Amino acid sequence: MQERQTGLKLKAKVRYLRSTMAIRAETPYFTKFLLPSHFSGTNSFMTFPCDFAVKHLHLTPQKIFLRYHNKMWSAMYKFKSVSNGHSVTGLYGEGWRKFVQDNELCRGDGCIFVLSEASKRVKVFDVHIVRVDD
Description:
Blueprint: H1 2-19, E1 29-33, E2 45-48, H2 50-56, E3 62-68, E4 71-81, E5 87-92, H3 94-102, E6 110-118, E7 123-130
Parallel strand pairs: 3-7
Antiparallel strand pairs: 1-6, 2-5, 3-4, 4-5, 6-7
Main location: nucleus
InterPro entries: B3_DNA-bd, DNA-bd_pseudobarrel_sf, REM16-like
Keywords: DNA-binding, Nucleus, Transcription, Transcription regulation
């Protein structure tokens, strides 16, 4: 039930951000509900949509910057194939864990990742957080 409520809040936040032009129609973004595997242990890995990654980030490992409330964190991005023939993309490493800790993210929180800068060398996501307990 909590995740359903968070989902509704996440959709409302996307509508709000679009209405204020923080997300324009042509701006690439994706939403994600956080699971324990996204931030627990030393092998935390936050997956995101493969089609988004292929279109906007390509297949090479790179540093990605996350911006929230005028602070920046750098996290590593990678694209990897798994044994069943599928591919997985996402963020991992100390920078991702630090982002989660500094912003006190927990299971069920929703995040909107808006690709605000995307040159060949630098990728910056503005992150909007919807708390599960708000």
